[in-house]
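Work package 3, deliverable 3.1, input record:
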Amino acid sequence: MTIEPASRAAVDEAVRADAPPAPREQQRARYPDRTGFVERGGVRTFYEVYGDGEPTVLLMPTWSIIHSRHWKLQIPYLARYWRVLTFDGRGNGRSDRPTDPEAYREEEFAADALAVMDATATERAVLVSLSRGAERSLLLAADHPERVEKMAFIAPALPVPPAVPRSRASQEFREPHDTYDGWGKFNRHYWVEHYEDFLEFFFSQCLTEPHSTKPHEDTVGWGHETDGPTLVATQLAPRLHDEAGVRALLSRIDCPILVIHGSDDHVRPWESGARLAKLANGALAVLEGSGHLPHARDPVKVNLLLRDFIGMGRTS
Amino acid sequence: MTTVTDPPGRPRARDAGRAVEPTRTGIADARDGVRIAFDVYGTGATTIVLLPSAPIIHARQWKGQIRYLSRHHRVVAYDGRGNGRSDRPVDPAAYADEWFTSDIATVMDATQTDRAVLVGLCSDAVWRAVLLAVAEPQRVDGIVAFAVGVPLLTPPNPWRVEWSFEDELPTDEGWAKLNRHYWRRDYPGFAQFWFEQTASEPHSTKLIEDCVTWALDGSAEAMLSDADAPSSLDLAAVEATCRTVACPMLLVHGTKDHCQPLSRAKRLSELTGAPLVVVEGADHMIPGRHPVLANLLIRDFVRSLQEGVS
């Protein structure tokens, strides 16, 4: 495999530029053509640009327990056809790790996305999000409809029914307990004291398919690039808490929407993705047997769904 | 709009489908009456015959190669005697080198293949490919040999001879499973152990599961008959045979091969002058675990033959 020296240099440049290092950086199928930082309120966000061609596809950050490398199996494929933009959500990767929960409001992530679009002269983009990337994508599209062409949601994490398996633990997130079992590990005290075990548990719930050792190793590794206290801060930031909030955002959005959800998602039930598709009058693709990270575990299926969705209505 | 799938709930067999279906499937009759099941894929001026590592597994071992290679070439794959859809003779004489070697020619005859590039893994395939190249050089354009397993060339890995194969052992643990009596008692246990040992790289769970499934398509009886096959090899004869190979060869061997020592690949390279690709960190099942690497090596080797470069 040939690696463009210039592209590699771009990454090295970014690493040298005073950013947190990427300790587990692996060889990539494709290196970015351009990298950079945007800064808002003293928080720096690292972004990457791949390829060219219309439209631009913006791969949104998910929960900062991982960073933009979770799109590693989408970037090289999508960048064959289109310009691909991605960035590390604040709290992980090469972006800053503010300690104030307010810095992790969904509005901040949406504003970071807009800042990255501005910095890269991206007028409009197709937004693709995973899990917790859903709400920030909806915010961006509702507040700036002219900047968003389409939206694809993978395993969206939004407060639409049915309830998530961890709902009880989430309510008791701040309380210390004597023991922490199963989703009881979704607890701020446990994250600070047993961060590694939480990562192992959480990603075992995300990756329920057989033969997932590699994405499990990858995701746990990315999780280790941030820490328990930072993750607690992300969790304390306010988010939408009911379907009415989701409906209110959707009422201001009329772009095409696709929801992709695994039928065996142990983190967010597929029925909640189906509910979002219904509320949004969008399309739904349920991947039989897939867990919470279908783009990592069944990348070809997800990539082809994204290709058809992004290319739909375009002549090329 | 976009694809809308059926609602979940119906069972789906993962990976039940194949990346490509054969264009022709058939049965070839060996001279001893054993029936050999083969598949033909794709078209092209060059035919590649993928040799089975029989009787422990069968032609599906090449599932990561067939789709890719058949884009550009005609590909023939077959189940070796003792596994898959081929017959499972019980007479050890049916598992002699001569039969496995002539089966290659039998399948080539049945598929109207005058000459071919042979691709194989380990001694079950590589040694028989060498024997055919020496016996019928006009039919073998070249050989790609993964996990080179020419017998006797150098001493075996020490763990493989730690325990007696023939004797009743006081334990079933570890390499004591490489034992006739254990195979009879618990062949699935042996298959699981064997492929965990020889596919020891991280993230090999799918490969191990596949290989164990293919092993259980076969039987302990066929494996024991194969182990009891008559053989009269000595080192001098093996070396002389290797020196006689005239066709181009490519040797590919991992540094962490738990079945065949790297020294055998190096020695075969010395004897034949064939180039050796050493894959850092790779264990025994290179085509299964590193399909892109294996496929590109096969592609480049075939291309070099077509261009008259070697």
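Confidence is low (pLDDT under 50) at residues 1-17 of chain A.
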